Amino acid sequence: MASSRRRHATPGRIGRVGRQAVPRPRVIMALLLLLGLVCMLLLDGYLRAEVGDDQRVRTGASADSVPDDVLEGGPILSFPGGTARTQSVPDKTIVLTFDDGPDPEWSGKVMDILDEHDVPGTFFLVGSMVSRYPDVVRRMVDEGNEVGVHTFTHVDLSYQSEARVKREIAQTQLALAGAAGITTTLFRAPYSSKTDAIDDYSWPVYERLGAMGYTSVFIDTDSEDWQQPGVSKIIKWATPEDGEGASVLFHDAGGDRSETLAALPKYIKKMKAKGYTFTTVSGAQQQDAAAASKNGASEDEAAVDGAVPPGPAQAGGTGSNPAQAAHRTADTASLWEGRALLAAVRVAEWTVPGLATMLGVVGVAVLGRFGLMLVLARRHHRQRNRRRFTWGPEVTGPVSVIVPAYNEKECIAATLNSLAASTHPLEIVVVDDGSTDGTAEIAESLGLPNVRVIRQENAGKPAALNNGVRQARHDIVVMMDGDTVFEPDAVHQLVQPFADPGIGAVAGNAKVGNRSTMIGAWQHIEYVMG
């Protein structure tokens, strides 16, 4: 019984397999560049609500699970000790709140008005806008205004999973940390209004956020400035009744805010004339706690009523400004993560317009090239179809045909047989680029005249072509793929332009011999255009 023999891999074979298995550095760099570009595009789409956008807004849901004292309570909702507690804005006090910013055009003008009239504001900020306009946020904090979270992408959280809710909050806090070095305990849900609008779907969201240390802020009066109803109506709708305190809603972003800018100074003057003072949400909480203490509440009760929970920042308040008691100094990790986020956003903001510009330039160039091809093709057609057109004396000298081949065992025989039947004298140089399927052996076994097979380690088609050119014996070189059947006169037709003494090189195409089918026709167009 003959013993079985196993074929062992030679060092050369092992080296070829290793080189083929490990991507080349330029491939890795190209893949990393592509990955980075995709990430930039996704980040830009996320910031502009083009990726992951959810425009659903819940209406008409019941509120059976919401406590009555919350539905009927004040606009400031917190959960000290795990128990829901609402606070009201003290009488003759206004908390000006602004949603949907920061905006590079409108927020600064709103702050100019607040500064001119020496009143603070509380701005509920969208995280994606914070990451795009951090300088505006920095100015808000520096000028003594208070800021709160308004989610990262302005979605209705009652539709979102618990993980999405946490992500919306955390991403906004990172943006705030990167922009102004702070985080905040204040939160306002998009599309929220008064506490009596809390329903069974949004209530669990507020409970979870309360357990995380957030104070949810609602409104007493709504200016509805987003409708642009006119300055007089904005002022009327924002004014509380009978000297009551109010958390008032305006907007500093989300559209044309020119009516808001016109109404705001008039509203401030009107309310001051009525004896009102202005404060932030934290200021209203402290005033409410002080009032509770004066009305005979115990020190413990007053502390609970007026407390600002430690919240997600874990680092203590800013301390220097009671009107910013909800602010927390960002810890080192959050600070650097936030800065990294802002840096990535800046890159994305630069990359996407740059790509759009490049695509525009490429598009114009492609259209220009296409138009030029139409003009030149028409000229070429007229020239070539004139009677007695000729490139010059017929080229009949032998040429060298270079055929690079890598694992072409299914096609190489047909390719070489078609070339051997050429009407033009030629030599055929087959450069086997490290094939592992016996391509070289098949080419040699055909026994065709004027066919030489050159073997090389796998190095790619350009290296194979260069090697073949170095081995060519004739002045004119034609390069052919190893997987195509050629017409007998293909080589002869390709070399005829060399009869023109003004032509030093020719780019030809002989890949598609059958253009009568739809696929063949389109492939012909692809190759010719390429």
- Largest sheet, if any? 6 strands, parallel
| CATH architecture verdict of the domain at 399-529 | Alpha-Beta Complex
Give the CATH superfamily of the domain at 399-529.
Spore Coat Polysaccharide Biosynthesis Protein SpsA, Chain A
N-end to C-end Cα span? 60 Å
Approximately what portion of the residues adopt beta-strand conformation?
Answer: 5-15%
CATH class of the domain at 399-529: Alpha Beta
Low-confidence runs (pLDDT<50, min 5 residues)?
1-10, 298-311
Helix content: 40-55%
Structural shape = elongated
Backbone CA Rg: 38 Å
Annotation, overall tally of beta strands: 16
Q: Give the helix/strand class.
A: alpha/beta
Helix run count: 18
**pLDDT averaged residue by residue:** 85
Q: What is the CATH topology descriptor of the domain at 399-529?
A: Spore Coat Polysaccharide Biosynthesis Protein SpsA, Chain A
